[in-house]
Write a structure and sequence with these properties.
This protein is an all-alpha fold and 88 residues long. It contains four helices and no strands. α3 crosses α4.
Length: 88
């Protein structure tokens, strides 16, 4: 690849990062973000395991509504519903 091609590629990568980051980029955001690798380590320390399932869209909507009503995350709602179902 030519030098100009590399420069174009680098510029495109930079512009993509800037657009994806939004207006609160480059240290202006009060919230600290955790990268995926750090988040995975935190989840593993808590004993959390990723578990992908395919659910009916109506069921997902009901779970999301319950999470909003209770003011907790969707993960917490699903964990509660599954544990209650298994204990019944």
């Amino acid at each position: 690849m030519k030098k100009t091609g590399l420069a174009k590629s680098d510029a495109k990568k930079l512009m993509g990062k800037m657009q994806a980051a939004g207006p609160a980029a480059f240290g202006n955001s009060p919230l600290t973000t955790i990268d995926k690798r750090e988040q995975r380590k935190i989840d593993q320390a808590l004993g959390l395991v990723p578990f992908a399932v395919k659910l009916n869209s109506e069921l997902v909507r009901q779970l999301q509504e319950r999470a909003q009503e209770q003011g907790i995350s969707l993960n917490e709602v699903v964990a509660t519903v599954i544990s209650q179902g298994l204990s019944a």
